[in-house]
Amino acid sequence: MNNPNKNQGKTLLGILIALSFSHMFNDALQSVISASYPVIKDNLSLSFAQIGLITLIYQISASVFQPMMGLYLDKRPNPWFLPIGMCFTFSGLVLLAFANYLFMVFPAVCMVGIGSSILHPEASRLTSMASGGKRGLAQSIFQVGGNFGGALGPLLAALVIAPYGQRNIALVALIAVIAIICMIPICRWYNFMIKKARLRSRNRSAVFMEQPPLPRGKTIFALAILLILIFSKYVYMASLTSYYTFFLIEKFGVTVQNSQFFLFIFLVATALGTILGGPLGDKIGRKYVIWISILGVAPFTLAMPHLGLAGTSILSFIIGLILASAFPTIVVYAQELLPNKLGLISGLFFGLAFGIAGIASAVLGGVADRHGIEFVYHICAYMPLLGLVTLCLPDINKK
């Protein structure tokens, strides 16, 4: 059976928008966890190391399951897994809202992580199916929803959780119901695609078959380079998403509520950067976008720890804008390396992003406890220099 991108011939914009909104709602709920850290830290009298441990458990639960879910759904497509994942997220947030002890927080964030591990590989694979061949554009549409959702989390925390307390996390969790409603047309379309595939072939996974562009050895080498770039990006991103609010509070004396607005500015920039990354990769080549977005951000990350509040806010916006353009391009590049394993690749890279962020958050939390939160930003500023390895990537873009 043929690849669906070739058969459709056009981009299914309605499905892509629905997937983007689903991603937005999911990531808004996911980001409520880190955005609520100051409130949870005060309520439960936690250390930075314990905050890092919470993040580690959340990120590991998300990262470990993502490639497994992607591989499973590559072989056994199921149109209703997206709402099932959202039910996990809803349950975890409700439990988090009423967690009175640290050991109640652990299963809560684990359930939220499992919800994410179901949505990301499956929705990313469906995005590729609905792209009509414009994979960079489609992946940007999908991921920008997640970025805007990630930006909404701190805003919700600032408006709903920080002023009124931890229990209001349960109120925010009701967004999951809206997300499930948004997923219904996606599930119906995907159910139609599965039935159509079964009519053409008994092999359900053959719908994704396409010839890889590189020999196996070069494919493995290129994937290894991409993993290094993901490591570079998400170690630095972990310093901002988990500890940026604490950095602003400690260095500049801003309030908890105002720190959430500064985090919102950074996360909005990442959403805008995501919009640019995919289409630029379609036009000028994915390798060049990756090169610019990883290495090009280094001068700004090196300068940010030495500036005042206004300069820090401005550079955080620029960093988010440039750095965020890398991920949709990296994911599409990897999907093009193994086009018949879209779910596995999506799960691997989304999962790796979560896993690296979780481990980095735990390590950086311990460093912050010992040496101060400002020290974290001085050492993380050098991570984008690993973008130099982009020179080793082959150019596989097809005109």
Describe the structure.
The protein has 399 residues and is an all-alpha fold. The chain is built from 17 helices and no strands. Helix 2 packs across helix 9 (175-200), helix 5 (81-97) packs antiparallel against helix 9 and helix 16 (342-371) packs across helix 17 (373-380). The chain is globular and about 60 Å long.
What labels describe this entry?
399 residues, mainly alpha
Reported for the largest beta sheet, the result is: none
Give the CA-CA distance, first to last residue: 24 Å
Mean pLDDT: 81
| Computed structural class | mainly alpha
Could you spell the SSE succession in H and E letters?
Answer: HHHHHHHHHHHHHHHHH
In one word, what is the shape? globular
Low-confidence stretches: 1-8, 204-208
Q: What's the total count of β strands?
A: 0
The number of helical runs is 17
**Beta-strand percentage range:** under 5%
Q: What value does the Rg take, in angstroms?
A: 20 Å
Helix-strand blueprint:
Blueprint: H1 4-8, H2 13-35, H3 37-44, H4 48-75, H5 81-97, H6 102-129, H7 135-161, H8 169-172, H9 175-200, H10 216-252, H11 256-284, H12 286-295, H13 298-303, H14 309-324, H15 326-337, H16 342-371, H17 373-380
Report a brief summary of the structure:
This protein has 399 residues and is an all-alpha fold. 79% of the residues lie in helices and 0% in strands. The two termini are 24 Å apart.
